[in-house]
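I am writing to request your help with a piece of structural work I have in hand. I am sending you one protein, given as its amino acid sequence and as whole-number tokens for its backbone shapes. Kindly check, if you would, that the fold set down in the tokens agrees with what the sequence suggests. You will find the record immediately after this paragraph:
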Amino acid sequence: MAILIFRFLKMEQSMPPNKKMSPTQRRKALLQLVIENGTIKINDAAQKLDVSPVTVYRDVQTLEEMRTLLRTNGELRAYPTSTSEMPPELRSAQAIPEKQALCAAAAKLINPGDAILLDDSSTALPIVDMLQEVSPLAVISNSLTVFEKIKGKDGIQPVLIGGRYVEWANAFYGSLATTLLRELQADICFTSDAAVSLSATYNPIDYVVDFKRAMFAASKKKVLLADHQKFSRSAFQVTALLSEFDYIVVDRQVPKDILAGMRESGCDILLAE
């Protein structure tokens, strides 16, 4: 039986229902179009989604408020990494082989009986499918995506941390989530971040930074998963110094000079196959 600790604050739906898709489905489809094309005109998006331009304008307003979409001169583009995060479905669809390899390497750090802490990081999500091989385990997370994947699995005890529901992440955040997390202790946590440098990890969203820091405080061991793309991105808030992590798991496409610099800083680097 899952230990369920959450307070769900339902987000208002500002869009009228569409005959073919719900407002949430339509916004995700719109964001997917933008990511696939780089930029797209509102009229073109309306045609592809089979809705009116007015409907697209309304969806764009909602996505702008969520800081996932940017409108410039009638064209739509995704916000840069420095100011937003993408919904989990879209994040999970990127760099799939790299994420699988990172998680396979990271899973070797898990021992039967461990309490594992995960957030909504899509980079660490594939590790969920590897956990039964080292069960019994307790898996603590604020992510509904993680919870749905592990509930009912033999040998795995889910612990869902609640708080304010954040739609783009399909996860719980806010002061309640961080307060609840302070009452728990994990043997090991696995996470990623929006951007990584030679010295630190970064994230643009305050409540995500707060939760990740609470994760680190609640964990005996901390593991960062970072594919090579993370090192070419930027975000303006420091989440953690690399020296705070016990292990940093990277793929083999990370440039050699970056690997050398991280090792010189004393980081324990694991290379994914």
Remarks:
- The chain has two domains: 1-78, 88-271.
- Residues 151 and 158 are 6 Å apart (CA to CA).
